[in-house]
TrEMBL record:
UniProt biased composition (Polar residues): 195-208
InterPro entries: Metal_resp_DNA-bind_regulator, Tscrpt_reg_PadR_N, WH-like_DNA-bd_sf, WH_DNA-bd_sf
SUPFAM superfamilies attached to this UniProt entry: Winged helix' DNA-binding domain
Domain spans labelled Transcription regulator PadR N-terminal: 14-95
Protein name according to UniProt: PadR family transcriptional regulator
Renumbered residue ranges of the record's region Disordered: 185-208
Basic and acidic residues bias locations: 185-194
PANTHER family: CONSERVED PROTEIN (PTHR33169:SF26), PADR-FAMILY TRANSCRIPTIONAL REGULATOR (PTHR33169)
A Pfam short name: PadR
Length: 208
């Protein structure tokens, strides 16, 4: 199950990055390392099986540049293959970006979804943020309970580590509260603007 979940995160990351720009495999690896490396140890060995699967599904295509005429000694060098998103790939990406369930609230899932929030509908963004906050609040309860049970039995360094973990989660919850407040305010502003626009577009009664 964990492997399948990780594969879904990698698929979203690859399709999202290729939506922004076609890339060579090397550049894609670098960008994935920046994106996923923040949330987990990214395995380069998992990229090429993922690309192969996306190619088989028709979600991406390989663009092989035309081979220049080169001396025989250099003909064994491989051309750089550029990976591009297809129309089906864009459709699949849109589908993945509407998913706001528990997988999008976990550490690596949330990080990748958040990276592509600019391409995500406002209502989906809000559901993911609220789901992430709910997941972290559960984690906070668990960490606090563990601290209360073990505080008297652990050494000062272990206690410092546990407190650091607690503070990190509390800090992220505060950050999420700010983001959720901002999202709600922007959505309310958008709804108000739409209502005002509808009123302005209503036919006005002419006086006799």
């Amino acid at each position: 199950m964990a492997g399948k979940k990780g594969a879904g995160v990698l698929e979203l990351a690859v399709l999202g990055l290729l939506h922004e720009s076609p890339m060579h495999g090397y550049e894609l690896r670098k960008q994935l390392n920046i994106l996923l490396g923040m949330f987990r140890a990214f395995s380069y060995g998992s990229l090429y099986p993922c690309l192969k699967l996306l190619l088989a599904k028709g979600l991406i295509v390989e663009d092989r540049p035309q081979e220049p005429i080169v001396p025989l000694a250099l003909q064994s060098r491989r051309s750089k293959i550029v990976y591009k998103l297809t129309a089906d790939g864009k459709e699949r990406l849109e589908q993945l970006l509407t998913e706001a369930g528990p997988a999008a609230w976990e550490d690596e899932g949330f990080g990748v979804h958040f990276a592509f929030f600019s391409h995500t509908r406002a209502d989906v963004r809000l559901r993911i943020l609220e789901g992430r906050r709910s997941r972290l609040e559960e984690r906070l309860e668990s960490v606090r309970a563990a601290l209360a049970r073990t505080r008297e039995r652990v050494d000062s360094y272990t206690l410092e580590l546990q407190n650091h973990g607690l503070e990190s989660v509390e800090r992220e919850v505060r950050w999420l509260n700010e983001l959720i407040g901002r999202e709600r305010a922007e959505q309310e502003q958008a709804r108000t603007s739409e209502r005002n626009q509808s009123i302005q577009n209503m036919p006005r009664e002419t006086g006799r």
